[in-house]
Structures are given as C-alpha cells and as structure tokens.
C-alpha cells in the first residue's frame, strides 16, 4: 500500500506515474516580515522595482517561446505581463515600504492580500479563480526578491511537476515536453493549471492540501486525476493497477478524439448540438479541434480584467470581431458583462456588500452602469457584421429587467445608426435562466427573446439555497434534486411553447449522469468547456432518446433526491459502464 495518499480536485482527467519534481518552494513559505531603517527605504523600493522588471523580462521571454498552437498560453502570459506592469500594484507596495518602513516582500504580501479580498466573494468560479493570475505574478516577484532564479528547461526524465501553483510561464521554462502531470496546492476547477493541463491533455490535480510537507522531492507518485488522488510511493500491486488503467484511458481518449468530428447522435437518431464555453478570442482552434459546433457561452468578463483602465468600444469590438471571424460560420453567443459590486474593476467602485451573490451583480450591475453596458452592446452588434453572433443577458430575474435591457439595446442600435456605423440588425437576443424567479416567469420571458440559456451552476445554488464552495453544505448541492428537475422541465416547456430553443451551459451539461436527463428534458444544445466536447459527444452516442424521455417521466414522479440519483446511476451504468471510469465521479448518490 502507498506510504501516503493525498486528496485533490481532478481538473484534467488521466493517470500519470513518475517522479515528483518541485518547481519552487517559494509559494509555500510566508513573506519575510521585517522592518528596515529609514535610510534603507529608497534602496528597498528600488529592489522592488528591479524584481518587477526582471519578472516582466522573464514573461516576455516565455511568451516568445510559446508555440503557435498554444494560443491560450500566449493570452495568459500577456495578461500576466499587464499585471506585472500594473502601476497600482507596484505603487501600492512601494507606498507601504515608505510609510511602514518594511521589507519589499512584506509590503508586496500586504498589497496582494488587499487585492485578494476583492475577489473572495465573487460568485462566478471562473472569475474568482482569476486572482490566481495575480498570485502567480506576485510569487515570481517574491522569488526574485529572495534571490531565487527562474528555472530553465533541463534534459532528462519525465516529471510530475509539483508547486504551490503553476503558470504558463513556469511550464514553458521547464518544458512542457518533460511534464507528464501537474499537482498544485492551490487552485480550483477554473484555475489556469486546469486550463493549461486540459489544453495539453496532461493529468492534473489541484487543491492538494499538505503537498509541501508530505511529498519528498523525487518520490515516486501516481496521479489519479480521475478520482482525485495522489499516491506517494505506491506498492507493486498499485503500480500494476494504475499502469493498466493509464493504458485503457489513453485508448479511450484516442477513440473519442477520432470520433469528435462526428455529430452527437443518439442511438435512435436524435442529434444534439454540442457547443463550447470560452473566455476570450483564442479558443477557436481548440473548439474546432475538439469537434465543437459553435460557442454557447462567451464570457466577456475576462476582457475587463487585469487592466489599468476600462476597455474602449473599439477594443471590445476588435476582440469580439476576432472571435467571430475565427469561428465563422459557427455562431458565437456573447454573454454581456457578468460582474458585480466586488470591485472587479478598479474604476467601478461600489459599496461593500456582505452577500454579493444576492447583490448588485449580472444584469443589475449593467443596468446601473448603462454607459458601460451600452458600450459593450455596441461592440457586440458591430462584431455581428463579421459572422453569426447572438447576445444574451445574465441573471435576469423579472420581465421589467429584460424590458430595461432591451430598451438600452435599442438605444445602442440608434446610436450606431446616427453615427453611420454598420452593425448586425437581426442579431438574436436571449436570456440566462439562473434564478428561481426567471424559471417561474419563463413563459412571459420566452415571448420576448429568441432563446434561453440555462446556467445550471447558479440555478441549482439559488434553488436549493446552497453554496457549493462551502464544505459544510457542499454535499447538499444536488443537480438532480426534484426541484431542479421540475424547474428545468418548466423552463424548457415554456421555451418550446414559444418556439425558441434552450441551451444548458452549466456543469450539468458536462456530467455523464446528467446528460441523459437533459436529453429526456428535450434541451436543444449543451455548452461545455472545449476540451470536454469529445467526451460529451461520446456519452450522448450511447443513449436512446426515447429511453431518456421515459427516464425523465419516471424521475418527475419522484420526490426524493436519493431515489432519483439511484435511478439515474442504474440507467447510465447499464449503458456505458466501461466509460465511467474515465469521467469524474458522480457524488450525488446518498440518502
């Protein structure tokens, strides 16, 4: 039996067996908290500035080494350069050195803590994880302050890279060709480690507590990035078992990749559209390579982050235009800005909110910042001239909110007309169904829009009153809860009665146990991370649509979550038992 077993979050599935290689111990140790003499202040500030300049040069160099087909790496490294050169971060730390007479490490640590607080209560997991970008840059600056040099690529055996966190720059410096797995102490499902690993099909675990103290450098490891385990010094039987599982997983992965360009067709002939969720314009090649049929959710928030000023209409238009042109003739659905009063953007300061998940976020935020809202919609309308584009509003909770948003959209059109600027006049407009009130009002909402997109992550959270990131209640977050199923049924029926389509873009769309339920509820499309598309298509091909219809009829007559979970598990296991070993485990079967 292994000497130690650590648990983590599997963010890129697969199995890896190899030697542990710690990238750096810097992120595991606290910053030096020391005071300095007054005459040392200027020298300390200069030391801080020099460290930032060194890191900026390293990031520039790393960006120049990124292969052409690693577009996502380039985009992330560009954002890290912007953070590294952000005068607010540098000035904040320098001011602390001068006023508190403390070492640069301590001053920078304080500035980072202040920035982190603005992200902690953001509800959207992807955006919340973006604080890791700032942490990655600061960690590199800290390492330079203490005299640690950048790690460079070395020849040698394959390694399992362990770190407090991993950035694309770290991976490029150490050579992706050597790395067979990532394991980090920090991060969540939306972290860059996960994005990086999935893009390269490298098994990865994040959130592994105790990594620094319990794993010796050079130890033999097994990374089980299917169930979320890290085995330290496994025994012979464990090595044999995982060696066999790794071969079977690679065969499965090759099989679904070969078939990913084929339609997602059920055994009785229903074709389901499988779309992609993306964050910026660099995802086109990834979507195409994985067999995606368009973009069901373009998160526009990323274009507003890590900036010293808000983007202009022209900057937004150019970003959206690139995405549309790269993906044409496939449709790109842009979700308008979905931020809240968490001070994501320095220029848009709001009063602190004790519960931002129920506060000024989504469409509420945009309706209170109409100039910004209109600027973004003008950019989306203009991008619609270059291909198929749709626009949708997040977190609509009332007909009045939708009417107000549509009025502002009409104003944006009039302004473009007055300016003589070309734009898409027949652009489809939809709404995100994410809160219970939108479910109840789905019929009148459907009469006013061209499509629905159901954000199941938020909808489940709001329906059940459960914060899935809270470990005390996370087990109660049940996507197949009877209230969730009946809400989905009501929403889909209302949409179809109005003659509009429904897409599901939350995690349920990527869950092999939820997919047959969504098929039986007759949703029209699923939108998932690009790297998940081949697996989702493969799962769909194992079900008969009529069987899924009958499953849902039975589920809707059931009022106990445990019974629903068992029925779904039995249904799925009867059809794809050999494939389930390669998907993240379903944890909903409980009483």
List key phrases describing it.
591 residues; alpha/beta; Glucose Oxidase, domain 1; TIM Barrel; 2 domains; eight-stranded mixed sheet; 23 helices
Summed up, what is this model?
The protein is 45% helix and 14% strand.
Structural description of this entry:
45% of the residues lie in helices and 14% in strands. Mean pLDDT is 85; it is low at 341-350 and 585-591. The protein is an alpha/beta fold and 591 residues long. The strands form two sheets. It has an eight-stranded mixed beta sheet. Strands 10-11-12-13-14-15-16-17 form an eight-stranded parallel β-barrel, surrounded by four helices. Strand 9 and strand 10 form a beta hairpin. The chain starts with a strand and ends in an 18-residue tail after the last helix. It is globular and about 75 Å long. The longest helix has 25 residues, at 41-65. It folds into two domains: 1-23 and 152-258, Phosphohistidine domain (Glucose Oxidase, domain 1); 259-582, Phosphoenolpyruvate-binding domains (TIM Barrel), CATH 3.20.20.60.
| Low-pLDDT segments | 341-350, 585-591
CATH class of the largest domain: Alpha Beta
Helix content: 40-55%
Number of domains: 2
CATH-assigned fold name of the largest domain = TIM Barrel
Radius of gyration, in angstroms, nearest whole number? 24 Å
Structural class: alpha/beta
Q: Can you identify the CATH superfamily of the largest domain?
A: Phosphoenolpyruvate-binding domains
**What general form does the structure show?**
globular
Task: Specify the CATH architecture of the largest domain.
Answer: Alpha-Beta Barrel
């Amino acid at each position: 039996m292994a000497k130690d077993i650590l648990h983590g979050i599997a963010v890129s599935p697969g199995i890896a067996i190899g030697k542990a290689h710690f990238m750096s111990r810097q992120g595991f140790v606290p910053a030096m908290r020391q005071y300095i003499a007054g005459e040392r202040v200027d020298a300390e500030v200069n030391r801080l500035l020099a460290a930032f300049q060194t890191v900026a040069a390293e990031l520039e160099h790393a960006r120049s080494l990124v292969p052409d087909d690693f577009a996502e790496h380039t985009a992330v490294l560009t954002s890290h350069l912007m953070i590294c050169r952000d005068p607010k971060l540098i000035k904040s730390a320098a001011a602390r050195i001068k006023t508190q007479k403390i070492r640069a490490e301590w001053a920078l640590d304080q500035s980072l803590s202040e920035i982190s607080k603005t992200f902690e209560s953001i509800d959207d997991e992807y955006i919340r994880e973006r604080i890791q970008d700032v942490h990655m840059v600061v960690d590199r600056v800290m390492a330079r302050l203490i005299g640690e040099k950048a790690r460079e690529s070395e020849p040698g055996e394959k390694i399992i890279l362990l770190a407090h966190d991993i950035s694309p720059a770290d991976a490029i410096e150490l050579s992706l060709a050597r790395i067979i797995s990532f394991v980090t102490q920090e991060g969540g499902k939306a972290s860059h480690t996960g994005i990086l690993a999935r893009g390269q099909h490298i098994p990865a675990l994040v959130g592994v507590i105790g990594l620094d103290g319990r794993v010796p450098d050079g130890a033999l490891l097994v990374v089980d990035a299917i169930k979320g385990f890290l085995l330290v010094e496994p025994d012979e039987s464990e090595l044999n078992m995982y060696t066999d599982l790794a071969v079977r997983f690679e065969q499965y992965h090759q099989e679904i990749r070969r078939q990913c360009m084929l339609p997602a067709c059920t055994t009785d002939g229903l074709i389901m559209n499988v779309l992609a969720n993306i964050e910026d314009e660099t995802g086109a090649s990834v979507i195409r390579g994985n067999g995606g049929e368009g973009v069901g959710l373009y998160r526009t928030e990323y274009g507003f982050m890590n900036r010293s000023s808000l983007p202009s209409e022209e900057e937004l238009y150019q970003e959206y235009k690139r995405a549309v042109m790269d993906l044409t003739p496939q449709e790109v659905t842009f979700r308008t800005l979905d931020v809240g009063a968490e001070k994501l953007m320095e220029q848009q300061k709001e009063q602190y909110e004790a519960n931002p998940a129920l506060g000024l976020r989504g469409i509420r935020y945009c309706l209170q910042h109409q100039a910004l809202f209109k600027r973004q919609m003008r950019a989306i309308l203009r991008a619609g001239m270059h291909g198929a584009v749709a626009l949708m509003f997040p977190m609509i909770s009332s007909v009045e909110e939708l009417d107000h948003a549509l009025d502002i959209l009409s104003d944006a059109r009039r302004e473009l007309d007055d300016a003589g600027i070309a734009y898409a006049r027949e652009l489809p407009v939809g709404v995100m169904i994410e809160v219970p009130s939108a479910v109840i009002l789905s019929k009148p909402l459907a009469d006013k829009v061209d499509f629905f997109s159901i954000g199941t992550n938020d909808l489940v959270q709001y329906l059940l009153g459960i914060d899935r990131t809270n470990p005390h209640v996370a087990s109660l977050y049940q996507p197949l809860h009877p209230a969730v199923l009946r809400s989905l049924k009501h929403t889909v029926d209302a949409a179809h009665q109005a003659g509009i389509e429904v897409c599901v873009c939350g995690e349920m769309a990527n869950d092999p146990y939820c997919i047959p339920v969504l098929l039986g509820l007759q949703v029209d499309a699923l939108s998932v991370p690009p790297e998940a598309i081949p697996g989702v298509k493969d799962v769909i091909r194992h079900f008969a649509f009529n069987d899924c219809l009958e499953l849902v009829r039975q589920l809707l007559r059931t009022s106990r979550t445990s019974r629903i979970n068992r029925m779904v598990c039995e249904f799925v296991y009867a059809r794809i038992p050999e494939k389930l070993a390669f998907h993240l485990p379903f944890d909903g079967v409980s009483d």
